[in-house]
Amino acid sequence: MFVKLSVSPDAIETTRNVLSAKHSEFPFDRKYFHGSQWANIEEPYRNYIASIFRLAGHAEAEAATNVVIFFLRTSAGVDLSNRRLQSAVTSDNIQLSLSAANALYPRTVGPQLQGFGFDVRERSNTTTVVVKLHRYLEVLDWLLSDMSVDDLKTIIEYNVLDFNAPFLSTLFVKAQSDFYDKVIKGLKEPPKCGRAAAEANLLVLKLEAAFKTRLDSAEWLDDATRANAKDKLSHLTHLVGGPNNPKTYPTLTFDPKAYITNLNKVSAFDTTFNLALIDTAVDKHLWNKLALALNGYYQPSKNRIVIPAAYLQPPFFDAKADPSANYGAIGFIIGHEITHGTDNRGRRYDGNGKKKPWTETTAKLFSENTECFVEQYGSMDVKSELTGDLLGKLDCNLALRETLADNGGLNTAYRAYPILHKPKVRTVDLVQLMIGRRFDVIIRVLATLEKGPRIPPASLSVTTKMSVESDQNRLLHLRLGCFAS
After folding, report:
1. Architecture of domain 3-184
2. Kindly report the CA angle at 235 between 232 and 241, in degrees rounded to 5?
3. Residue 294: count of CB within 10 angstroms of its CB
4. What are residue 408's phi and psi, to 5 degrees?
5. C-alpha angle 59-64-67 in degrees, rounded to nearest 5
6. Pfam families per the record (predicted)?
7. How far is Cα 485 from Cα 49, in angstroms, rounded to an integer?
8. pLDDT digit string (tens) for 291-318?
9. Which CATH architecture has domain 201-244+285-484?
10. pTM higher than 0.85, yes or no?
């Protein structure tokens, strides 16, 4: 409940899977729990917690709400800073035997291991667990030790209700949507799931080829670093759309009148499936993202990009559209994710996902060459959409990964279309026209993303100050402004 177990590539031996333990994610960004952000969301959040307690028949909903909020605000106050996580070269992780993990974290990691059937007795097995952000878990374990059994039950009850609210009655669904979708995400209506129905792998290959030409033309790279970067690109795995062999559940039986029970069966099946991967070879083609999720990403430990099927529909991709539109839309997005492989975080990993930082000299040149991005974006004013008041400047040291990826994606898409697509009518005017149309598409795509569930402009009334300091993804309107200007 307080810790999530997962199976993922070992940070050192990246071709092997290991068991990992990390604290469960907060319901939303932890910075909401402090300062002005908390003042903006406290009342609607209290109303939401109390409402789902009342819907579940809790006799003392207000008192239970106070317990939950005290725990979340206290635990959020001791988490690691985003800046520290961005700049860390060595991870804040430790590898322990199961018995040692149980002894060190008797209220967090230990119960979770035992709950999944692991034998935590000393010398009982050779399985180990990588405890991530272990210093935070030490504090969390201490915090739990100081709570009463009744308070612990209340927190667990809230977690169960909050997790399952989308699958319960209409009143539960509405209560959760009113808070998470409207208050936190700034949406006027609940989000609608997209459908996937196209192929874009050929486009990915062309974008990779265009990115390779960028590496060849980067004069500041030394030969060894350039060779390593090209080798890494050649080993890049790209997952587009969805899994070729979707996971099925042939051994499960479902009751049409017991939806939550059905979900729990699926969850237990998935957990057993994942735990069976411990100490097996890493499968880079194993999906851990739903096809309908509008959230592509680059994963350094597996050196792969993932573009779910939700992107394979207008305005991002349309098989019937002019090719230039696809290069300007999903081509830009794919190029963005490819660029993450060589940004200020991705460059620390090689083609197999192992930590292999660039040389000190090349890293210094990288910093010098990216300083212009820090200066350009850092000069931008962020103003309240409600009052027009100046809230501050963008901290581009934190936003650097996204600004580099934006510009890299734009550059890659720009190179890929005229060089690799080879349009049938080879006139300068036509190519320039299509390039111009393509960049108009990029602006529209960024505007679409800004309106979507991930970066809605309406949410700035609650989140902009936090975003100025820490969350570059929520400031897409500034990144869009750079392209439009």
Report:
1. Orthogonal Bundle (1.10)
2. 120
3. 18
4. -65, -40
5. 165
6. Peptidase_M13, Peptidase_M13_N
7. 44
8. 778 889 999 999 999 998 888 888 888 7
9. 3-Layer(aba) Sandwich (3.40)
10. no
